[in-house]
Amino acid sequence: MLIESWPASEAAWARAKKSLAGGVSTGMRASMKPHPLFFSSASGPRMTDLDGNTYLDHVLGWGPVILGHGHPGLTEAVASRISLGATYGAGHALEYEAAERVVAAIPGVERVLWSNTGSEANQVALRLARAATGRKRFAKMLGHYHGWSDTFLLGYRPDSAGSVESLGSAGQLDSALSDVSLVPFGDLDAAAAVLKNQESDIAAVFVEPVLCNSGVIAPPEGYLAGLRELCDATDTVLVFDEVITGFRLAYGGAVERYGVQPDLVVLAKAIAGGYPVSAIAGRASLLEQVTSGVVHAGTYNGNPVVLAATVATLEALGADGIYPAFEARGQELATGMRSAIAASGVLGAVNQIGPVVQVLFGTGDGSTLDQFFAGDQVFYDRLIVHLLRRGVFALPGGRWYLSTAHTADDVATTVQAFAEALSATVGDGPGPA
């Protein structure tokens, strides 16, 4: 039976807007179609909304819920900590026990700093790089996302005039653009032109090793290694933003998968299975600067409850067979979606790396940032409403996540719903051709 409407969620949103700005706790949720949904519970790969509808969840908290909802080991670890106190304002064993797991997992990592969000962690990484190099500016790749701060929300999405080399928010200072060099992803020549120009004053290069935020686009062959060589030649700090890829593409993240070691790795999302924690990990000489002048503060850094979740999540992800299963489920989902798109006759593409999938319509093969920006989001927004009606919860923008709780049967169910929803969307009216 198709879901026709969501009256309880609509009522909850109307009530929320009277006290909560926009009716949502993060602006991203306001873009959910047909309107933000409100949920009452979740278990494994499924969530239940206020109207009692149950969905296969491919949003997964926008990525963090890598073990599925209510994972027994994770839930037990958190529950056992809560009665022992929420936070201490002092050291505790979980700080180093969790850090030891990160050091053991990611090649080249020697030290860890705990923080709370990816936005915070990237700010800390830049401060460390500036302190180490004595330089002020940084380079980032067009379309890459490193958080919502004034410093980093640049060159992420086209502005109203179609320029990507722009600020990302109202209220952001124009001067933020003076601190950054924006470089096309995959273009080593462009990166070299910036890094080898001493007047650029570049302290660090920030890059999503896989461009997950804008199309799930893999790095070209040799690109990450080329960035490593350029940074070595120019004494520039190389930072992998692995907020999405960390502990998702492999236990050692993109560092393990692609065999290139950055100086710093920024982690969040999957590292704690849905609990709010982030980390900056990497070379001891950079991170130990917090003992000699670099300020790294935060009342909630190293919170014992979230680090209990971190230890439990990393223990679960370290089990045999996790990442081969992720790859298999991701390929099954992508293959099924490609077949459905081919049968529908619409123009579309599907990218997949591990348990992350991107769907694009009205574009080419989806291999470039320009194609991602050119994708038909209006058509996709219509599609995700038809998916909701069939019990599948998907993100706006086209990115899909899988958790360890998703089975082959769950993927098959999702593919069937995708095919039916795609047919219904095409039936609604003109779409990509």
Structure overview:
This protein is α/β, with parallel strands linked by helices. The chain is built from 13 helices and 14 strands. It has helices at 7-16, 72-82, 93-105, 118-133, 188-195, 223-234, 253-258, 284-287, 304-317, 322-344, 369-374, 377-389, 408-428; strands spanning 39-43, 46-49, 54-57, 111-115, 137-141, 180-183, 202-207, 237-242, 264-267, 278-282, 348-353, 356-361, 392-393, 399-401. The strands form 3 sheets. A 7-stranded mixed beta sheet has the order 4-10-9-8-7-5-6, with helices on both faces. Helix 3 (93-105) packs parallel to helix 9, helix 10 (322-344) runs parallel beside helix 13 (408-428) and helix 12 (377-389) crosses helix 13.
